[in-house]
Amino acid sequence: MKNKFIFLIIIFCLILIFLLIFFKTYKNEENGNNNNNILNMSSYTAKIEVTIKSNKNTTKYKMIQEYKEGEYSKQIIEEPEQIYGLTMEYKNNNLKIENTRLNLSNIYEGYNYITENNLFLNEFIEDYNNSKNAIREENDNEIILTTNCRNSENRYQSNKILTIDKQTNKPKKMEVQDVNKNTTVYILYNEISYK
After folding, report:
1. What is residue 145's predicted lDDT score, i.e. its pLDDT?
2. Which residues, in sequence order, are bridge partners of residue 51?
3. Taking the C-alpha atoms of 57, 116, 68 and 34 in order, what is their torsion angle to the nearest 10 degrees?
């Protein structure tokens, strides 16, 4: 009788351990140890470094990006110094460009072309989620998502690649490539927070 009781306690403990491990694994997946959270984000703020390569030169920018789904998307230039403070905000189908240093402001009403802005993370996510050719690759430290750009007629912006740090589940970098797989835009995410 005593041996039966000990045997039942051991079985109960093993089942309890199994259930704890199972629920801990399930909770970790639900809380974002995969890239699903970033693919479903509704807003973000990021400090980024952008390198744009053309046929003749390379230009580097430091900027802050903000995005809130259904409300606005915004970029504020921090470098180069000569355009510091230049702000571009897209809201309610209008583009507002401000230069705080020169006290200048222009508003372009009915501006639709910003929706093809491959500098914004939300545009990558929308293209990735809607693409039939989206690719997901993983290694020990990173998740690499690849998709086509929405406007396939632009030969300088054909593919986009987003690299996500597996441990933090935050983007590390994004590349936009031309039809020859040369990087035309390189974005390094120095800081980012998203919901």
Report:
1. 94
2. 60, 186
3. -80
DSSP annotation of 128: H
pLDDT per residue over 165-192, tens digit each? 999 999 999 999 888 888 999 999 999 9
Tell me: pLDDT of 10 over 80. Answer: no
Give the number of other CB atoms < 10 A from CB of residue 21: 10
Cα distances from 44 to residues 3, 64, 142, 181, 182, in angstroms, run 59, 10, 20, 28, 28
What does the H/E/C string look like for 172-188?
EEEEEECCCCCEEEEEE
- Cα separation of 65 and 57, whole Å? 24
Q: Which residues contact 124 (CB under 8 A, 6 or more apart)?
A: 118, 145, 147, 160, 162, 174
Whole-number Å distance between alpha carbons of 15 and 167 = 30
Name the pTM for this structure: 0.77
- Provide the token pair at 60: 């580097």
Task: Compute CA 2 distance to the chain's CA centroid, rounded to the nearest angstrom.
Answer: 60
